[in-house]
Amino acid sequence: MAGSNEVNLSESKRVVPLNTWILISNFKLAYNLLRRPDGTFNRHLAEFLDRKVPANANPVEGVFSFDVIIDRSTSLLSRIYRPATGEEALPSIMELEKPVTGDIVPVILFFHGGSFAHSSANSAIYDTLCRRLVGICKAVVVSVNYRRAPENPYPCAYDDGWAALKWVNSRPWLKSEEDSKVHIYMVGDSSGGNIVHNVAVKAVESGIEVLGNILLNPMFGGQERTESEKRLDGKYFVTIQDRDWYWRAFLPEGEDRDHAACNPFGPNGKSLVGMKFPKSLVVVAGLDLVQDWQLAYVEGLKKAGQEVKHLYLDKATIGFYLLPNNDHFYTVMDEISNFVSSNC
Amino acid sequence: MGPYDSAISTGSTTSSPSSAAKPSEIDGLLAGAGYKVRSTVLHQVAQRLERLETLMVNAPSEISQLASDVLHCNPSDIASWVDSMLFEFNPPVSIPSDLSDFSDLTYIDSVVSPAINQTVCNNSWLTVVTAMKEDSGIRLVHMMMTCAESVQRGDLPLAGSLIEEMQTLLTRVNTGCGIGKVARYFIDALSRRVFTPQALCATGWSNENEILYHHFYEACPYLKFAHFTANQAILEAFDGHDCVHIVDFNLMHGLQWSALIQALALRPGGPPLLRLTVIGPPSPDGRDSLREIGLRLAELARSVNVRFAFRGVAASRLEDVKPWMLQVSPKEAVAINSIMQLHRLLGSGPTRVSAIETVLGWIRSLNPKIVTVVEQEANHNQSKFLDRFTEALYYYSTMFDSLEACSLQPEKAVAEIYIQREICNVLCCEGSARVERHEPLAKWRNRLGAAGFRPLNPNHLFIHCP
């Protein structure tokens, strides 16, 4: 099969900048080493290979960060990113949680990607992305270090997301001055996007207001093999086989991909009709093999009468938002900025 | 719409880089993602990733083995990581029909086929193509050893060809740290030896040397530690004496003595009268740098109320110094201090009385209370080039490794030049030009013992670095 693989490799190289190609290919190959056929995961090696960065209470390019414990019982940590006002030389512990200033200050609850198994809040790629979001949205960003599969399958990631949402919602220092409420948006890529949806459902059911959901290349699926999956299998860094592996790792034993967590508008999905679901921005990469599921998600929201903006990026692959070296990156950052500020 | 040039670097990063490569050489966006890849090798890295993927696809059963068995070195350095992955896969050794695809893998493996080396005519190569048998770093080491061995045998054309091969290979390796950096310096030294042997080896002291020495002092802990320990020994030896005299073989910046003067000032019972006599080369530019430093030390001594006298003795060679030049008084407690100077005396010709014996002789005649000797713990004085080369490779690899811990610039970069000078002297110079004749601790112990010196206690008398 060497011949057809060579065709695939050069195809993906044509559509992304070289350094992006290297970054994502490096992930792809490293991740191949971590997934074992028996469904277990080489966590030790994964943590070793993952490039992590520490939090930094000293502002770097106008943003500083610090880590907080949200739930000791599950070791749930989050990294908080705030814009530096320029006054503090070295924030003391008190100043880290200084009340936000401004009539309306968006607080972004961020869920990193990694197909439920990879990455952490302190992974370099996500630390960089969160720092960008602070600047773009003039927001405080809270990046949740949720528990990962296969050690912690469904519903751990959702439970952690929910705990983080409650925590953020109850921080006095995150309340906007205008109405003394925390203005919450949820943003997530890949599995993080999936978590955003599921935490939003819980939020609506529990009465916590979320102002908007942003899903970047969200991870959804189903039992059926869609046209996009068959067409794009193995062509742009991702294969059906690895998608299947991650779903098996996350979903409960014995469940298939039509489980509501994987397929929210599938046969086992819950209806959102009549719910005050947050408005959504769903970004779909045209070269992502699960785009048919992402489009189905958008359709599902529309059919349930929910407000959704769908952004389809023709020649984008997974991870296009990780490096600021392509048009799609800037398009999406603009959209996110507008989405978060449009409530002002 | 289209991919932007990766030269734009906007990635903010809070990770602390450990590589010594200049920031401008590394792809800025990948750096923000936690990876170090030099911009100039992006294409090669991509090629190797593709190759690795092909191998992984074709051998899925080996993958989990790969994950658990292999040593993953420095995952930030994608180039090295993918090389080590490729090394782990042992693809079948066969010469492919399309050699152009493997043009970047040609090298000569002298271990596998020594006979071929002998029959190779002066300017042509038999290239043995093995697909991805070795990591680039390991390959470089093998090639360097082969080159050193050719130099020893006098086969300079072969050595020259190898040097050219290695210089090409260097462009595909990260020479900012690790084995790449060490290889860069050693290949440079080999190149100088083979191609420009007539170029002068810098042997004399000069103002430039002081600057290099100073940066080396700041970048590494070795000299500071050596000074500190020597000073402790000297302080102890001077205990109870009112008149003390230090003879120093190489003043450099005088930092050792400013520390000692301050320590003497705080001595219970008050400081002694301190005389410092320094032996140094005559100033090439007429500037008396010894005197300048002496004046500074005198000023310091005055400020802490230590009676102080300074003399500089100009001598090009230590063995030319006569004891009477030092004007040592019998009532004084004398300390002799030699920081990395004695090894320079080991290069005398067979017809003369050995310089080291001469010097140790007059030191002994001064009847000092203590002699503090600092030397590099290394074996760089063997007559066979290959032996010297091998020893130096290990020693300076360790030295460069430890220098990685330093983040001060320009101290670190200049310290590297200092080390490079040493390397070049060890490898490129011969006869009286080669002054960096480091010898191991055991030999110094014997030599000093034979000259009538008793080890005070191993930690005080013999301080070996690194």
From TrEMBL, chain A:
Localization recorded for this chain is: Nucleus
Q: Record's PROSITE patterns?
A: LIPASE_GDXG_HIS (PS01173)
- What UniProt keywords are attached to this protein's entry? Gibberellin signaling pathway, Hydrolase, Nucleus, Receptor
Q: Name one GO molecular function term.
A: hydrolase activity
Indicate where this protein is primarily found: nucleus
What domain of life does the UniProt record list for this protein's source? Eukaryota
Keyword set includes Metal-binding = no
Read off the Pfam families from this record: Abhydrolase_3
InterPro entries of this UniProt entry? AB_hydrolase_3 (IPR013094), AB_hydrolase_fold (IPR029058), Carboxylest/Gibb_receptor (IPR050466), Lipase_GDXG_HIS_AS (IPR002168)
**Gene3D superfamilies, per database record:** alpha/beta hydrolase (3.40.50.1820)
Query: Record keywords: Hydrolase included?
Result: yes
Q: Please tell me one Gene Ontology term that the record gives under cellular component.
A: cytoplasm
> What biological-process GO terms show up in the record?
floral organ morphogenesis; fruit morphogenesis; gibberellic acid mediated signaling pathway; positive regulation of gibberellic acid mediated signaling pathway; raffinose family oligosaccharide biosynthetic process
Q: Which SUPFAM superfamilies match?
A: alpha/beta-Hydrolases
Residues in domain Alpha/beta hydrolase fold-3? Answer: 108-321
Q: Which family does it belong to?
A: Belongs to the 'GDXG' lipolytic enzyme family.
Name of the protein described by the UniProt record: Alpha/beta hydrolase fold-3 domain-containing protein
Q: What is the lineage of its organism?
A: Eukaryota, Viridiplantae, Streptophyta, Embryophyta, Tracheophyta
UniProtKB/TrEMBL annotation, chain B:
| Chain segments carrying region SAW | 428-466
Question: Where would I look for the motif VHIID in this sequence?
Answer: 244-248
Region: VHIID, residue numbers: 213-278
Q: Where is this region: Leucine repeat II (LRII)?
A: 292-324
Locus of motif LXXLL motif: 342-346
**Where, per UniProt, does this protein localize?**
Nucleus
Name the source's superkingdom: Eukaryota
Q: What segment(s) does the record annotate as region PFYRE?
A: 334-425
Q: Which GO terms describe its biological process?
A: gibberellic acid mediated signaling pathway
GO CC annotation: nucleus
- Specify the Transcriptional factor DELLA N-terminal domain's residue ranges: 27-92
* Region called Disordered, residue ranges: 1-23
Which keywords describe this protein according to UniProt? Gibberellin signaling pathway, Nucleus, Transcription, Transcription regulation, Ubl conjugation
Q: Which family does it belong to?
A: Belongs to the GRAS family. DELLA subfamily.
Q: What does this protein do, in the record's words?
A: Transcriptional regulator that acts as a repressor of the gibberellin (GA) signaling pathway. Probably acts by participating in large multiprotein complexes that repress transcription of GA-inducible genes.
Written domain comment of the UniProt record: The DELLA motif is required for its GA-induced degradation.
Q: What is this protein called?
A: DELLA protein
Q: What is the native source organism of this protein?
A: Vitis rotundifolia
Q: What is the lineage of its organism?
A: Eukaryota, Viridiplantae, Streptophyta, Embryophyta, Tracheophyta
